[in-house]
Design goal:
binds alpha-ribazole-5'-phosphate; six-stranded parallel β-sheet; 49% helix; 6 strands; 366 residues; EC 2.4.2.21; Rossmann fold; binds nicotinic acid; Nict_dMeBzImd_PRibTrfase
């Protein structure tokens, strides 16, 4: 039987501090100056805290690409027409999009989900979970009902639950939805109080003039919907993004199954913010892949307490940065499993260790 979002939130527990501490000890026993592998070490510790295991081989991973349409496209806020959403879904299913290429390279499965595309798509590999044909226009009313937002969260949660049951141990968030940087900016402003002029970015590449218009659209969306940031599901319902709510469920699902979840760009990070507001402990299971060029993303990551691993001037979404970061997670796992210890390799330890008994740690605080 399906759980409620409240029950899901209650099922998410804190990271395993003992396993993280054991990972730190193991890292400091390896043949390198303490802390010298920088963020790879913090990732290794975080993975231990998440999974409860100090050293494991890198698990099977999957990127969940949630696709949905946005009524707010009627306001002319994107550089591209709304029909690109279903067109790109067909591209994902044919294996030709950027996320497909990068997922193949990283050995990750692509799970493409129709959670609210405004078109009928049939394909044997499509995960058909349409809740409605796109959201309402948030500049003039709510994106969806509260029930629809909750149903979208549960879709993401169930997909992860089933994938975890067949052995997927690491998830990446991905999305497709023309107009979704507008919904994301509105959600970020609603949750944080940061004004629209600081959360609205250039999305697919709009002009300065269209950007100013987009800021006005987000201001209208906030004024007419009056979201209550203390009610995260209600806020998701008002400002929407079926794919954003779906990804919130993916993140909660990963945390409930004690799996790491790699958070992709701006839109995924807004879903992460909603997940954190629903279940604060879920933030411990998040790993930020990269910082997007989209305005607002760097600030959003710092509000989530996440440090991105990659700075590649990307601004695509789909889960592209997320699957690229899998190479680094794999690297961290291999370091933990394969590197020799000082003792095993007969290598002398640091004078600093001998002096005060405390290993100097880089303090890379992921
Ligand atoms: C061909 C194409 C492929 C994409 N893949 C991801 N996005 C990205 O751009 C969209 C958000 O930007 P905006 O809010 O400005 O519409 C989302 O679909 C996002 O995933 C794409 C956009 C396009 C045009
Ligand atoms: O950072 C992202 O995820 C992003 C930025 C611009 C357009 N689409 C996605």
């Amino acid at each position: 039987m399906l759980q409620s979002v409240k029950e899901i939130a209650r099922s998410i527990s804190a990271l395993d501090a003992k396993a993280a501490a054991a990972a730190q000890l193991h890292l400091d026993s390896l043949t390198k100056p303490p802390g010298s592998l920088g963020k790879l070490e913090s990732v290794a510790m975080k993975l231990a805290g998440i999974t409860g295991r100090v050293a494991t081989s890198f698990p099977k991973s999957a990127v969940v690409v949630m696709a949905a349409d946005h009524g707010v496209c009627a306001e002319g806020i994107s550089a591209f027409p709304a029909e690109v959403t279903p067109q790109m879904v067909r591209n994902f299913l044919a294996g030709g999009a950027a996320v497909n290429v990068l997922a193949r390279q990283a050995g990750a499965e692509v799970m493409c989900v129709d959670i609210g595309v405004d078109a009928d798509i049939e394909h044997p590999d499509l995960i058909a979970k349409k809740i409605r044909y796109g959201t309402g226009n948030i500049a003039v009313g709510p994106a969806m009902s509260r029930e629809e937002a909750e149903a979208a969260i549960l879709v993401g949660f169930e997909i992860v639950k089933q994938a975890a049951a067949r052995g997927v141990g690491c998830f990446v968030t991905g999305e497709m939805g023309i107009g979704n940087t507008t919904a994301s900016a509105a959600l970020m402003s609603a949750f944080t109080g940061i004004p629209a002029r600081e959360t609205v970015g250039r999305g697919t590449g709009i002009s300065e003039e269209r950007w100013r218009h987009k800021v006005g659209v987000v201001d209208r969306a906030l004024a007419c919907n009056r979201p209550d940031p203390a009610d995260p599901i209600g806020t998701l319902a008002k400002l929407g993004g079926l794919e954003i709510a779906g990804l919130t469920g993916v993140i909660l699902g990963a945390a409930a199954n004690r799996c790491p979840v790699v958070i992709d760009g701006f839109i995924s990070s807004v879903a992460a913010l909603a997940a954190q507001r629903i279940a604060p402990e879920s933030a411990g299971y998040m790993i930020a892949s990269h910082v997007s060029q989209e305005q607002g993303h760097a600030q959003l990551l710092s509000l989530l307490g996440l440090e991105p691993m990659l700075h590649l001037e990307m601004r695509l979404g789909e889960g592209t940065g997320g699957v690229l970061a899998l190479h680094l997670l794999d690297a961290a796992c291999r370091i933990m499993a394969e590197m020799a210890t000082f003792q095993g390799a007969g290598v002398s330890t640091s004078h600093e260790n001998a002096k005060d008994g405390t290993p100097e740690n880089g303090g890379n605080g992921l």
